[in-house]
Amino acid sequence: MTCRRSGASERAVGHASWTRRSLPLAMVMLAVAVLGATGGCKRNPRVVPVRGKVLYNGQPLPYGAVMFQPDQGQPAVGDLAADGTFTLSSYGPNDGAVPGKHSVSVSCYEGHRPGKAGGGDSLGKLLIPLKYTRFGSSGLTAEVNDTAAKEPQEIVLELSGPAVAFN
Question: Which domains are delineated in the chain?
Answer without folding.
Answer: 1-42 (no CATH), 50-159 (2.60.40.1120)
